[in-house]
Amino acid sequence: MVNIKVSRLYNQPVEGLEVEIVERKGVGHPDSLCDYAAEAVSVKLAKYYQEEFGRILHYNVDKALLVGGRAKVDFGGGEILEPIMFFIAGRVTTEVSAREGVRRIPAEEIAIETVKEEFNRRLRFLDVNKHLVIKPVLRLGSTDLRRIVDEEGKTKNGVVPLSNDTSLGVGFAPLTETERLVLEGEKLLNSDAFKRKLPEVGEDVKIMGFRERNKITLTVAAAIVASLTPDKEHYVSVKEQLEDELCDLALTLTSKDVEVKVNVGDNYEKGIYYLTLTGTSAESGDDGQVGRGNRCNGLITPNRPMSMEATAGKNPHSHIGKIYNVLANAIANRIAVEVDYVQEAYVYVLGQIGRRIDDPPLVNLQLVVDGTASWNNIREEARAIAEEEILNVTNITKLILEQRVMLF
Q1: What values do phi and psi take at 184, rounded to 5?
Q2: How many Å separate Cα 406 from the centre of its chain?
Q3: Is 324 helix (H, G, I), strand (E, B) or coil?
Q4: Which of 173, 207, 299, 340 is such that its CA lies 20 to 30 A from the CA of 6?
Q5: Percentage of the chain with pLDDT > 70?
């Protein structure tokens, strides 16, 4: 039986705190680009292994670094002076012994093509053949880790993968109004409908939400596309329309007072504007790295517990640094929705290398509940939900490969 601990927290819910801070980095932010690209390579490798060998072999491609390029930009256009450089490193099964001899796996070729596809999909104005240089370094993993991934634990329900790391997954629910506004705000600004309305707004959008009592301030950094912005007046108009769109969204999510500030680093008198050619600061202004951006629920939440584990690029078959973050959020969300009187649910799932992924050494549920509630009933309902989700943990691999769960 899984070791599930359920305890009651007597904390004030985050929604009731005087101060709350929330951040989300959009799909075109350099850190997010690293996450999306590494995860795309992970999915492509997993599917390749499944198609060629009938199962997912050992790999992890969760180390990626983006080195920003150089660009010269002004209203109406500009030029790329030096391309973006993207490095991806990891341990990959690069060859398999077969009856006809050793089969080489074109892992680095797969990585290069997949990264190009992902950057091309995420950034409308980036020419991946001119503005991007990709350098993969994928090497064979150690014998012990490869053997752990190849092994499986037997249960009455069949075979279950063994964890290939000792790590922690963390999740919480529900989101506060500020968290929802930051999350949905970035999704709005990078939606197809919004891009048709305001194509000048690039994909590199970052929103920092700050709530003090009943006032929420959204500070937005939005890369404006120079080729679609002929002058200062047009630039200012785009910023004002962007602010209006977020204010309209806020009316649907909260009754609190909301103020939106866009590109506050601008200084019109000194000619400082957030203009880009490609819609991302990666062309000149910033670098990126896997794991420095959004957590598994799409947010950066200093008021909440978070795992430092990067989910992007990890093996979805047996790396519990990925699987348990998804699992923890699934448990937390179900408890918050299904168990009456629970105001907040915090879930910690600890994994241990070599142990079946459906048998974590510890699952810790911490619940903030209404003071009038029956604790015994709440504890047992929460425990039952955790047990059910853990029993079905192997389903998470399929959800990840089908991209049906949020990872960052």
Answers
A1: -70, -25
A2: 7
A3: helix
A4: 299
A5: 98
Asked whether the beta carbons of 293 and 408 are under 8 A apart, the reply is yes
- The DSSP string of 5-74 is EEEEE-PPPGGGSSEEEEEEE-TTSHHHHHHHHHHHHHHHHHHHHHHHHSS--SEEEEEEEEE--EEEEE
Query: Rounded CA gap, 150 and 115, in Å?
Result: 27
Q: What is the CATH number of domain 30-155?
A: 3.30.300.10
Tokens in use for 382?
């929460």
Beta bridge partners of 206: 25, 221
Catalogue the E-assigned strands of 246-386: 257-262, 275-276, 288-289, 342-350, 362-369
Q: What is the DSSP string of 214-257?
A: TEEEEEEEEEEEGGG--SHHHHHHHHHHHHHHHHHHHHHH-SSE
Same fold, 4-14+166-175+293-401 and 177-289: yes
Structure token digits, residue 298 = 């799409």
**pTM exceeding the 0.85 threshold for the entire prediction:** yes
Q: Where are the domains of the chain?
A: 4-14+166-175+293-401, 30-155, 177-289
pLDDT tens, position by position, 84-139? 999 999 999 999 987 777 889 999 999 999 999 999 999 999 999 999 999 999 99
Question: Can the peptide bond before residue 13 be classed as cis, meaning omega within 30 degrees of 0?
Answer: no
Helix axes 375-391, 320-338, angle to 10 degrees: 140
Range 4-14+166-175+293-401 has CATH code 3.30.300.280 = yes
